[in-house]
Design brief:
Blueprint (H helix, E strand, L loop, with lengths): L1 E3 L2 H11 L2 E6 L5 H11 L4 E6 L19 H10 L4 E3 L3 H4 L18 H4 L3 H16 L3 E5 L3 H13 L5 E5 L19 H6 L2 H10 L4 H10 L3 E9 L13 E9 L2 E8 L1
Helix pairs in contact: 6-7, 9-10
The structure holds pantoate.
């Protein structure tokens, strides 16, 4: 696996290996990321993964500083998957000057996650656009675990006519249902035992439990829920009569860790 830190070097390497499928990550990889890498493999001859902890998508007081940087371990995992190219830019390379040109997502960017993490989708959309311009992939893979991110990136690619096919990867879960996430490592042992409740509650909502009941169950079990909502899958708007392709989305804090998850139905 070739590891590149520089944009010019990256573009030369991509030109040499042909059309590539791309998996953007912030590192601290787990099986969920590897399943996206395998999906990328089915989209193009070669796979490029990026590891970049994007300061722009962290709010003041969030975990940017303590976000786990595990480059050596990540590199081994990607090598074992046969990834051709790892792009690991230094922050000064991707943001040589303060990023004052920012992608402004549609109103959806201020709902759900955006209501509790204002500016998050500006940061995500901006870095994804930059990464697409650096890597110039033919396809890019995003996990459904971050459902709203997937919908917003898909919309951005559509409206900016970016020639990248957006491919959605299924959420990979632990045996007890907890969605794999880089932030699960923050959980204490008792929190880890409690954490699958979020998925259980969302599954119950998908079977008809009112979201307010789900919020109550989480609060009673010691969580601080931000939201549980049912939306349409394709655009995350509120369901209208006759809509059948839906998703229950939720976010809640367990101790100091904020977890998100969703269940399609
Ligand atoms: O999902 C993530 O890990 C990040 O939001 C992404 C897409 C790599 C952008 O920083």
């Amino acid at each position: 696996m070739q590891i590149v830190h520089d944009i010019g070097e990256l573009r030369r390497a991509v030109r040499a290996i042909g059309p590539v499928a791309f998996v953007p990550t912030m590192g601290n990889l787990h099986d969920g990321h590897l399943s996206l890498v395998r999906l990328a493999r089915s989209e193009a001859r070669a796979v490029v993964v990026s590891i970049f902890v994007n300061r722009l998508q962290f709010l003041a007081g969030e975990d940017f500083e303590r976000y786990p940087r595990t480059m050596e371990r990540d590199r081994g995992m990607l090598e074992a998957e046969g990834v051709e190219l790892l792009f690991a830019p230094d922050e000064r390379l991707l943001y040589p000057a303060p990023q004052t040109y920012i992608v402004r997502p549609p109103p959806l960017g201020a709902e759900l996650e955006g209501r509790f993490r204002p500016g998050f989708f500006e940061g995500v959309s901006t870095v994804v656009l930059k990464l697409f311009n650096c890597v110039q992939p033919s396809a890019a893979v995003f996990g459904k675990k971050d459902y709203q991110q997937l919908v917003i990136v898909r919309g951005m690619v559509g409206q900016f006519d970016i020639p990248v096919a957006i491919v959605a990867g299924e959420t990979i879960r632990e045996a007890d249902g907890l969605a794999m996430s880089s932030r699960n490592g923050y959980l204490s042992a008792p929190e880890r035992a409690e954490a699958p409740r979020l998925h259980r509650v969302l599954s119950a909502v998908s079977r008809g439990l009112p979201p307010a009941e789900g919020l109550r169950e989480l609060a009673q079990a010691g969580w601080r829920p931000d939201y549980i909502e049912v939306r349409r899958r394709h655009d995350l708007e509120l369901p209208r009569a006759g809509d059948t392709q839906l998703v229950a989305l939720g976010a809640a804090r367990l101790g100091g860790t904020r977890l998100i998850d969703n269940v399609e139905f």
